[in-house]
Design a protein that fits this description.
Largest sheet: 6 strands, antiparallel
Distance between the termini: 69 Å
Helix content: 25-40%
Strand content: 15-25%
Amino acid sequence: MMQQKNSHAACTTVLVGKGATLDGSTMIARNGDSYEVLVPKRVKVHPHQGLEKDEVYVSPSNRFTLTLPKERYRYTGIPDREDRYVTFEDAGINEKNVGMSATESIYGNPRVLGYDPLVENGIAEDCMVTVVLPYITSARDGVRRLGEIVETYGAAESNGVLFSDKDEVWYMEIATGHQWVAQRIPDDSYAVVANQTAIQEIDPDDKDNFMLASHLIEFIDKYHLNTGFDTINFRNIFGTQTVFDHHYNTPRVWYGQKYLNPECEQDPMSDDLPFIRKANRKIGVEDIAYILDSHYQETPYDPLGSGSEAERTTFRAISLNRTQDSHILQIRPNVPDELAGIQWVSLAGTFSPYVPFYTNITSVPEAYAVTPMKLSLSSAYWLYKTIPVIVEPHYTAFLKQVLDYKDHLHSQFLGKIVQADKEAENADQEKITGILTDASNQNAELALRKTRELLQELTTASMSLSKLTFSMDKNL
């Protein structure tokens, strides 16, 4: 049996239906974590393309091969820095206002993988966005396309994948080589997922809310896999419930739900945390950012907090030093389609701002588009990666300054979005993309400028906090 191999893993996901958000947006979001501390990321905009002949895609990672359609919609992505290939594009929104984020690494249990092993040269995380997002017209269409690929060519990994459009949010789980299921997040609800099979009871007859592999039920019956009596619980059948889940995965779901439903008393190591919940309030971009940036603040489990050594190392935090990017894909109602998609991008984790990029744009600033392999403060990725190096050793002393920096930027971003919306709505059709590109670039440049100022201030302040000092006579 093939073992899952994935260097980009250990992510955390948040999905929110349109009836659960402040303004009726759909939102899907995820931290792009890796097993390595440094995997340089960049932001890319792919233009609409119409090719004269078919093109065959071959993954540089495992040689997965697929013939692609000739027409490709414009889409955004957050690929690795690698120059030779466009890989691990993480997330984006295409010109049809369909969002996709891939992937949330999950794990099938040994029983189901024994009957349907992963496929060595099947589709994997490195190319899912690349071969799916440019070719889909709705969230359901995204599930359908990826599902057909998995059933035809097999999957090299067990993964969760997020899809959205202006009306619907879907979460899809690929559990084995060819078996998958997807569930629509109810409009009034949210979900938090953390590297563990999450979808619970499924109803194959409810076509409005579930999609599944064509032979899933037959597979379950053939190998006597159903652990229930009158229900089909996908999590129990296909997922894992190990000691590692209890320390690595379930606590992250617990904390996200604790934030949005503080009235619910739950065990962070429980195997029964619900997949779907209704928050006790409407959810904004800021709430999702807080969850994805979090590390169990105001609990004993915060690695940067004041709990005991045992408590601070009990659970894996949501945001890590190996978080390479975090993104929130917002598709807004009540605006023209040309303005609906906004991709909030945070490079390098918990101390970085979420910068909004309209997705109907032609380019991003060079600092975001070009990322060298070695540290350079002219690069957005490396600039943001530098913040925690200075902040973490003096977390208590610098925390308010960092939070103020992020909050001030976020307020300015929101104001700029209002201005750009108004300008674009009153503009000629051919000028809209230019207006949105300029607004996005201004927000990105503002973030870079304020980050450089912050680093100057923090570096200067940290010099007086050195332990290589001693107080005695001022003349000595």
